[in-house]
Fold:
Amino acid sequence: MSDIDSDKWLEAMKFEMDSMGSNQVWTLVDPPKGTRPVGCKWVYKRKLGADGEVTAFKARLVAKGYTQRPGVDFEETYSPVAMAKSIRILLAIAAWYDYEIWQMDVKMAFLNGFIEEEIFMDQPEVSLLEKNRRSVVSKGPSTASSKLPEAGTHILMKSYGFSMKDMGEASYILGIKIYRDRSRRMLGLTQSSYIEKVLKRFKMEHSKRGLLPMRHGIKLSKKQSPKTDEELKRMSNIPYASAVGSIQYAVQCTRPDVAYALSVTSRYQACAGRRTGARSRAFLST
Structure:
C-alpha cells in the first residue's frame, strides 16, 4: 500500500477483521461442489468532521454483489436509513423543548437483517484465515436493524454486543453541521463543508457567489438541447447529472430554497444544453 497513511489503513483493516471475527460474521469452510463463491474487495474512506478535517480512517470488506444472480443468490435487499426530514423533526423537537442532543457511534452495527441464504465468499487475499481453505460462508451476523423491533423501544445497543463510542453533544451528522442557541431555543443546520466539496469536484471553488438560483425571465426548453454532433460531444464531457444529483442531496437536507431551480434543471438530464448547464452552475454558487 503506497498511500501516505498506509499504517492507518492497515490498522483500520485489522479492526474490520477483528470485528467480523468477534461478531461471528462467517464460518470458514471448503466450498461445496457446484457453488460459485462471490469475490470480495476492500473499500477505504476517510471520515471527515464538521470542518472537513479527517477524524477517522475506515476500511470495509465488502462482497462483490454485482456477481450475484437475482433469485439464486438473493431475493430482495433493504437497508434502513433515517430520512433527512425525520432527523430535522427530531432536532426541532429537541430545540423546542430544550432536550439534550447526544451522539453515539455504533461501531460495526450491520444495517441489513439476518441472511436466510448461504452465501459463499472468497477469503480476502491480504488476510487469509487459512491458506489451504478457499471460502468463507456468511452466517448472517447479529444486526442492529433485525433486533430492534424484537426488544421494544427502550433498548441499549450495547446489550447486543456492539462496541460504542460516546461522541458527546451532537454537532455533525451525515455531512450536516448543527448550530445551537439554547438560550433562544433555536437550532440551525448547514452543509457548508459538503457544498465546498461539491464545488471543488466541479472546479467551481473560486467562482463568484450568486444571489438567486433562478432569476425571473429565464426560460429553459428542450429546443436548447444539443443538435449537432459537436455539441453532443461537448456536453457529454460535462457531468450535468452528477451536479444535479449533488444539489438534490443539499435540497433534501438544508437548502429547500433552491428546490424549484433543481426541479427545472432536472428535466434536461438526458439532453442538457449549454444554457441548462449554465443554470446548474449558477445555483451551485448560491
Q: What stands out?
A: Residues 6-179 form one domain.
